Amino acid sequence: SKSAGRNAVRFFDPAMQAAVVARATLQRDLRHALRDGELRLFGQPVVDARAQVVGQEALLRWQHPLRGMVSPADFIPVAEQSGLILPMGQWVLRQACAQLAAWARAGGERAQWSLAVNLSPRQLRQPDFVDTVQAAWREAGADPRRLKLELTESLLLHDIEDTITKMEALAAQGIQFALDDFGTGYSSLAYLKRLPLAQLKIDRSFVRDLLEDPNDAAIARTILQLAKSLEMEVVAEGVETAAQFEALREMGCHLFQGYHFGRPAAL
Ligand code: C2E
Ligand code: CA
Ligand code: CA
Ligand code: CA
């Protein structure tokens, strides 16, 4: 006397249900985090070839009351799916601009620092994105020439003409763009030339085995050559040792970031 309903239960996957519930919970908690001020903006130093700090990259953290400090890798994907990345990204932009204004007021070498903000492709697809960014630096009283925006190659999968128009409008305000995680994505060299990019960031995966793997060293060299001919700066990410720093410096890399110089810390 089996009912159809009971048979259907056999096709039900409890693990999948657990995942759906976990994601819904995370989404709800994240919405509250934004509302209750549980988000923090950390910064990781960016240094030049003399190992002098020239700026910071802003990295989002979630100070969860029970889970502790949650890494963006664990919540950015959920924020992107749910659309929460839009108000969250706005918060990051405003916070970053307020930080730039505070450094400028404090004077000294910090007044010269740049601050790089990571953008989700979804933010750039907003029709009012250019105005949103302009409002953020204007209202904070920040110098837009100190603001950098980091984009990934996935951005090139969407309306490229619209992307170029927006980037050019922001570049005209003095804002600089960096292409993040370079070498891991879908970049077409033809597009690369058309985007107003000031920097390429060599992905950490190529830096990690630079000294052991000749292929990774060749990739790093190629990126540096490409950047040179396109008149862009190169930032190497994930520099963890003095030997990696030295090797990249000898290849002509301009800027460096990684645990060797400093871990992300509260701004
Ligand atoms: P990303 O933009 O590639 O940021 C660099 C990541 O590498 C950071 O991870 C940083 O802590 C880590 N890192 C830096 N130096 C080293 C090193 O020497 N060794 C190793 N093993 N790791 C290093 P984090 O802070 O966990 O951020 C992960 C990703 O989350 C970021 O990758 C970025 O894609 C995203 N993200 C962070 N903040 C934001 C944000 O405000 N908005 C958006 N849309 N994404 C963000
Ligand atoms: Ca980044
Ligand atoms: Ca990166
Ligand atoms: Ca990355």
From TrEMBL:
| Every EAL domain range | 23-267
Q: Where are the transmembrane segments?
A: none
Which molecular function terms from Gene Ontology are attached?
cyclic-guanylate-specific phosphodiesterase activity
Q: Which GO terms describe its biological process?
A: cellular response to nitric oxide
Q: Which domain of life is it from?
A: Bacteria
Name of the featured protein: Putative signaling protein
Record the organism.
Answer: Tepidimonas taiwanensis
Q: Which residues of the full protein are shown?
A: 436 to 702 of 702
